[in-house]
Amino acid sequence: MNLYRSVRAVASASGDGVVDWGAAAEAAKGATNPGSLDVSDEERAGYATDVRDARDRVGEVAGFEFELPDQIEVQHRHHWIDANVDTFERLMGPLADRMGLFPGVARVMNTGSTSVALGFLARHVLGQYDPLLLAEADPADHGLYFVRPNIVRVSKELSVDYDRFRRWIAFHEVTHAAEFAAAPWLPDHLEASLEEAIENLSDGSPWGMNLGGLDTTMTAVEGYAELLMDRAFDDEYADLRRKLERRRQGGSPFSKLIRRLLGLDLKRRQYERGKEFFEAVADARGVEAAAAVWESPENLPTDGEIADPQAWIARVDPTPGFSGPSRY
User: For residue 9, what pLDDT band results from cuts at 50, 70 and 90?
Assistant: First the structure.
């Protein structure tokens, strides 16, 4: 790490935007050890095998076939920052007119807070399916990333086998690839929800969003992924889930504060509520019927229906045999 590099980058933030994105990325990397990317041919082949097996197994459980993104990368933390800074920039673009009377001061503060967010996430993200939100792109251009230094570190912290933990992460991220393949309308829908959340900023801070419809959509995304993950993973996983949950609840006071500011506690709530909803749907109509949620935006559950799955079933009347994405 190079904290001087980080502070210097934030202090020199310039330009016309709400955030100096080049400075934010530089500061985040200055405060973040990239980690090792010394990957053997055998380990790289292991990642490929895990992803391929996950695609086959998830497709079998979901009841439809889908293709994986062309871009599958084993990254270190600086790679992850570079891969995500453009997405952050697109997301925050609508904030350009909210800088107030002192845009230079606001820019430095926003650049600093953004660099903290990027650095924190880069040190904690294990894997990521990137649907290139806010950008028109073919699903084949989407990305699937594995942040190897974090996977290695967390497997050691949890005292679990690295190969098994890596495979579990691969299965989880591939479930997201299945969702976006099944719902080609989902990126545009999320884009609209993100823009609405930004318009509803409550306190002028880039992180103080009223999420509204975005919360219910992400609850469906995370919950369906959890359903597929539980049914598709080809090994015992209860110990992995239990240890990860304990790890999420721990951490330093600073770590807990950052998690709250970034909405990561909300993400856990989305996992829990969404999982309960889709488990109820699958128990009533079968796993394949649960995929009816991706037929159109109108089939997404409302917040009330997430708490009352039978109401969603009555409205949508899902039946087994969802055909999946027509292009595959």
Answer: very low
Residues in the chain: 328
Query: What structural domains and CATH numbers belong to the chain?
Result: 3-316 (1.20.150.30)
What's the CA gap between 248 and 238, in Å, rounded? 15
* 162 in Cβ contact with 59 (< 8 Å): no
pTM (2 d.p.):
0.81
Rounded to the nearest 5 degrees, what angle is found at the Cα of 276, between the Cα atoms of 263 and 250?
40
Find out whether 262 and 120 touch, Cβ atoms under 8 Å: yes
Q: What is the CA radius of gyration of the chain?
A: 20
Beta strands in the chain (DSSP E): 71-75, 127-130, 143-147
Query: Which tens digit of pLDDT belongs to each residue from 75-102?
Result: 999 999 998 888 777 766 665 555 454 3
Mean pLDDT of 42-67: 94
67 DSSP assignment:
P
